[in-house]
Amino acid sequence: MRKEIVVNLPIKPNEVPALRELVGWEGRHSDYPVLFERCNFWAGLRGDQEELIAFGYISGMGLQHGYMEDIIVHPQYQRMGIGQALVTGLLQEAERIGIEIVTLTYDAKHHSFYADCGFVPCSGGLWRKE
């Protein structure tokens, strides 16, 4: 399988919610296509049947700092290096457009994955509407 991550890959509005649901997340159907209009950029990968198998994006003001979110790899394609290629592709695009700091939040079980991608753990906070 090729692992060519494509920045701003053309994606239909229903594809990301379907991929989110495949990994056990809420689909958030109302976020798409609005997300594509508001984030700095996204990246993705299609499988041999042209199905969306990986997706992630960076949002922010487009200045020095960006926030990486929704790093998703289809369950059948996990542990094949696609996630790391996705994160690397997003970080390369961030660097290309001048974003110098990228933050993200992740479940503790993914610590080694993000450390291998070059992220350094740091303290932070989270506010969430009740």
Automatic annotation (TrEMBL):
InterPro entries: Acyl_CoA_acyltransferase, GNAT_dom, NSI-like. SUPFAM superfamilies: Acyl-CoA N-acyltransferases (Nat) (SSF55729). Keywords: Acyltransferase, Transferase. CDD domains: NAT_SF. The keyword Transferase applies. It comes from the Bacteria. Residues 6-130 form the N-acetyltransferase domain. GO terms for molecular function: N-acetyltransferase activity. Pfam families: Acetyltransf_1 (PF00583). The keyword Glycoprotein does not apply. GO terms for cellular component: cytoplasm. This is GNAT superfamily N-acetyltransferase. It comes from Paenibacillus amylolyticus.
